Amino acid sequence: MDKTNPGVALVTGASSGIGLATAKALRNAGYRVFGTSRRAATERSDGITMLTCDVTDDASVTTLVDEVLARAGRIDLVVNNAGIGLVGGAEESSLAQAQALFDVNVFGVLRVTRAVLPAMRRQQKGRIVNVSSVLGFIPAPYSALYAATKHAVEGYSESLDHELRPFGIRVVLVEPAYTRTSFDDNLVRPDQLLDVYSSARAGMDVIMRKAIAAGDAPEIVAGTVLEAATAAVPRRRYAAGKMARQVSFLRRFVPEAAFDKSLRKQNGLPA
Q: What is the end-to-end Cα distance of the chain in Å, rounded?
C-alpha cells in the first residue's frame, strides 16, 4: 500500500451524507472503495462499488466482508459511519427502542469490526476509522441515548486501538459537530411521548434543525476521515470542522461549572 495505491476501503452508510462524501474522497485519493447501504443501490459511475448490508444483522455483515474480500482480496481501511439519531427525553424511549439504537450505532460498529479483523491481522496492516460525534464526549440533553451510543463507541475504539497495535492495525475516531446532511429528517422519534417533555423537545428540535442547516458540509468531515485514514502516525481522535475543534478545546480546558452553564444556554435550557 502506498500513496498511489493506498488499498481497499469499506465505508458503511455510504448512500448519502457523510458516508457518500467520504467514499468519494477516498476514491479520489486512490482507494478502491466499497460502500454500503441498507437497500439495494443503483450502479454508480464514479468508481464506488455499492453493496447491500444491514449492520444489525450478523449474516449480512459476514456476507458483505466475504464479498469485498472475494472481489478485492484485502481490506485496508474500514470507515464505520452507519448510524441513526434520536431526539427526545431519555424517559420517552422504551428499553426496546434504546436497544434498537444501540444495535445500529454500537453493535453495528462491533459487527463490522469483528468481521474485518481476521483479514487485517493476516495482512499485519489496517486502519479502522469510527465516525463518532462531539456528543461522544459532551452531555447532550434530549439526545441522551444517542450520546450514550457515541460515548460507547469512543470507549470501545480507544481500548481496541491498544489491543490491535501489535498487529499493525490502528483504530481512530472522527468527531463531527453539526453537519449539513439529512440527519434531522431521518431522526427516530421517541416511542413513549410524555407531555411533560413536549415543549423542551420541540424547542430542541428547532435548535437542532437550525444548527444542522448552518453546519459543516459533509465534505469537511470526509476530509478529516481521509486525514485519519492516511496519517502515518494517527492521533487517537480527530475533530472534524471548526465547531468540533472549538467544543473539544472548551471541554478540556473550561471549568466544569462554566461549561455546564454554556451548554444549557446553547440548548435553550433554564440556568
A: 53
Q: Is 15 a catalytic residue?
A: yes
What number of residues does the chain have? 271
Q: Given 31, 142, 146, 178, which residue is catalytic?
A: 146
pTM over 0.85: yes
Annotated catalytic residue within 37, 132, 157, 248: 132
Assess whether 132 carries a catalytic annotation: yes
Is 24 among the residues known to form the active site? no
For the chain, domains (ranges, CATH) are 8-242 (3.40.50.720)
- The answer to whether 146 is a known catalytic residue is yes
Q: Kindly name the residue from 15, 125, 156, 197 that is annotated as catalytic.
A: 15
Active-site residue (options: 150, 157, 178, 248): 150
Nearby residues of 63 by Cβ (< 8 Å), 6 or more positions away: 53
Give the C-alpha separation, 75 to 123, whole Å.
9
pLDDT in tens, the chain (271 residues): 455 688 999 999 999 999 999 999 999 999 999 999 998 776 676 899 999 999 999 999 999 999 999 999 999 999 999 999 999 999 999 999 999 999 999 999 999 999 999 999 999 999 999 999 999 999 999 999 999 999 999 999 999 999 999 999 999 999 999 999 888 777 899 999 999 999 999 999 999 999 999 999 999 999 999 999 999 999 999 999 999 999 999 999 999 999 999 999 999 899 8
Q: How far apart are CA 87 and CA 97, in angstroms?
A: 12
